């Protein structure tokens, strides 16, 4: 199983890119610390936070403290802490706005929903079951794809660095997340 995330209010951009990479990443703006910690634990999500106190709370279960303010570094911190191995094949499978998995949309059904030029020139469409947005490959996606490739490569590099957290039973391999040692339900926390 791939890890699922609960991202705190300070890390909205990171949450968006996690979704673009295909990760299930809920983003909470309104919840206080207790509610966030409880929700992460209840939903079996890794809490991703910039709040040192919150990351330390036992009630949060598994948590990763992010120190950097810069997206690339935040991503490298997270990828390294959880040994994430994102795959481009999973990218762009989720709505970046509401985190739902996109569903295929028949070309005929897309017709009234997209501009005529887009309908005439694109074959494949997908729709978000949450907000109803329709997605298709567009020229601006080249920039996004480039960034996604950079993030995938950054994760590979981050995981290649020696790390104190190695061998602690966390790891994402091809085909999904699996604990390297130990079973499911194991709680791993990153010390600040
Ligand atoms: Zn949506």
Describe the fold and architecture.
With 192 residues, the chain is of the alpha/beta class. The protein has seven helices and nine strands; from the N terminus they run βαβαβαβαβααββαββ. It has helices spanning 12-20, 33-42, 52-56, 71-82, 107-110, 116-121, 141-160; strands spanning 5-7, 25-27, 46-49, 63-65, 103-105, 125-127, 134-135, 172-173, 176-177. Mean pLDDT is 85; it is low at 165-171 and 173-192. The protein binds zinc ion. Residues 95, 97-98, 100, 128, 130-131, 133 line the site of zinc ion.
Key words describing this protein structure:
single chain; 192 residues; alpha/beta; 4-stranded parallel sheet; 7 helices; 9 strands; 34% helix; binds zinc ion
Give the SSE map.
Layout: E1 5-7, H1 12-20, E2 25-27, H2 33-42, E3 46-49, H3 52-56, E4 63-65, H4 71-82, E5 103-105, H5 107-110, H6 116-121, E6 125-127, E7 134-135, H7 141-160, E8 172-173, E9 176-177
Parallel strand pairs: 1-2, 1-3, 3-4
Antiparallel strand pairs: 5-6, 6-7, 8-9
The structure holds zinc ion.
The site of zinc ion has 8 residues, from loops.
Bound small molecules, which ones? Answer: zinc ion
Number of strands: 9
**Termini separation:** 26 Å
Stretches where pLDDT is under 50 for at least 5 consecutive residues are: 165-171, 173-192
Q: Measured on Cα atoms, how large is the radius of gyration?
A: 18 Å
Shape: globular
How many helices?
7
Structural class: alpha/beta
Beta-strand percentage? 5-15%
Number of domains: 1
Biggest β-sheet: count, sense, barrel? 4 strands, parallel
Indicate the percent of residues in helices.
25-40%
What is the topology, as strand order, of the major beta sheet?
2-1-3-4
What number is the mean pLDDT? 85
From N to C, what is the helix and strand string?
A: EHEHEHEHEHHEEHEE
